[in-house]
Structures are given as structure tokens and as C-alpha cells.
Structure prediction request, 68 residues.
Amino acid sequence: MEKKIRKAKLDFYNMSDFLKGQSSKIITKLSENDEAAFILKNGKPKAVLISKDRYDRLIQAGIDITQY
Prediction:
């Protein structure tokens, strides 16, 4: 039997949330909960924001996101 990989759904935040002074709140939440989230502009994903711990795990796993 094949093992199914369960993908977690990412939260999303609008670019306007950052312009309204919510960036500190959003970054703190993602960091404290070790999460990742899409950043949307005009309803379309433009970037992904991840916690430092999650980033460190990617690097330890040999995944260098700067290569892609």
C-alpha cells in the first residue's frame, strides 16, 4: 500500500493587511505557530511567508529554496 502524504492547507493574507500595519501581528502568529501562509495581491498568490523554524528544517533536509 502506498502511503498518502497529507498536505496542510496554508492560510492566506492580503497584501493590504501588511499595508494596514498588520505585518507584525501576522509574522508573530506564523512564527509562534511554526506556520506558512500565502500572501495575496488582488486575490492571487504572490508570495509565501514561512516561519524561521520551518525554513531551518527545509535547509536541514537539503532543500535550498534559493536554488529554485
Remarks:
- Residues 23-32 form the longest helix (10 residues).
- The chain has three helices and three strands.
